[in-house]
């Protein structure tokens, strides 16, 4: 099976699209910041790290089998600058389940871009890929990410205590989830796909 969104995915102010080498400087601008990397499964990244990812796993534009993921740049429509990225992973064909993750540059936080990018990512998961259920796994210390998952209409389903040895310490994970039928009623102001 081949699950392929039509790019770019438009939101009110952003375009979600596959990453390319022209995005390296924008990606390094926020992915090299230690606090951005604190709760996510990567360390601060250099230009060489980003180029290797773009040439590898980030180069994937379709979901062909379970475990595949797509990582899309969140580009400001008016300037072309990538200010974050959204990951959509296909977890299970049998259970029609996926996962979403998101990273936004701190220079653009507090303006609704993270919610807009993640909302567009959920459109990809449910509308384009036809998934039944999507989860978000959040480090329990990352309260901003947990609040965002809640604002997107995802419900907290689990709090896993010290479930992972992560960056030198035991950490808790909060799992959020939402179903396709719940998603269909979620609207975001200005979203062209919600109207």
Notes on the structure:
The chain is of the alpha+beta class. It has one domain: Aminopeptidase (3-Layer(aba) Sandwich). It has helices at about 25-30, 35, 45-55, 115-130, 145-150, 180-185, and strands at about 10, 15-20, 70-75, 80-90, 95-105, 135-140, 155-165, 170-180. The longest helix is centred in the middle third of the chain and has 16 residues, at about 115-130. The radius of gyration is 16 Å and the shape is globular. The mean pLDDT is about 95.
At CATH's second level, what is the architecture? 3-Layer(aba) Sandwich
Flag low-confidence runs.
none
User: How many domain units?
Assistant: 1
> Which series of helices and strands comes N to C?
EEHHHEEEHEHEEH
The averaged pLDDT comes out at 95
Report the radius of gyration as a whole number of Å: 16 Å
Number of helices: 6
Structural class: alpha+beta
Helix content: 25-40%
Distance between the termini: 29 Å
CATH homologous superfamily (4th level) name: Gcn5-related N-acetyltransferase (GNAT)
The coarse overall form would be: globular
- Report the count of strand segments: 8
Side-by-side strand order of the widest sheet: 1-2-3-4-5-6-8-7
CATH domain class name: Alpha Beta
The main β sheet shows up as: 8 strands, mixed
User: Which band does the percent of strand residues land in?
Assistant: 25-35%
| CATH fold name | Aminopeptidase
């Amino acid at each position: 099976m081949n699950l392929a969104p039509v790019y770019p995915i438009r939101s009110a102010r952003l375009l979600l699209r596959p990453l390319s080498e022209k995005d390296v400087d924008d990606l390094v601008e926020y992915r090299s910041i230690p606090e951005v990397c604190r709760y996510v499964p990567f360390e601060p990244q250099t230009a060489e790290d980003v180029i290797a990812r773009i040439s590898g796993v980030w180069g994937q534009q379709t979901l062909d089998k379970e475990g595949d993921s797509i990582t899309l740049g969140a580009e400001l429509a008016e300037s072309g600058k990538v200010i974050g990225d959204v990951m959509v992973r296909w977890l299970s064909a049998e259970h029609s389940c996926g996962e979403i993750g998101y990273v936004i540059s701190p220079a653009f936080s507090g303006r609704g871009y993270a919610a807009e990018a993640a909302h567009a990512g959920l459109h990809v998961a449910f509308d384009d890929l036809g998934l039944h259920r999507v989860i978000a796994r959040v480090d329990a210390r990352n309260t901003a990410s947990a609040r965002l998952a809640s604002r997107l209409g995802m419900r907290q389903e689990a709090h896993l205590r010290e479930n992972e040895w992560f960056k030198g310490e035991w950490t808790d994970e909060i799992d959020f989830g939402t179903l396709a039928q719940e998603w269909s009623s979620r609207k975001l102001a200005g979203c062209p796909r919600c109207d």
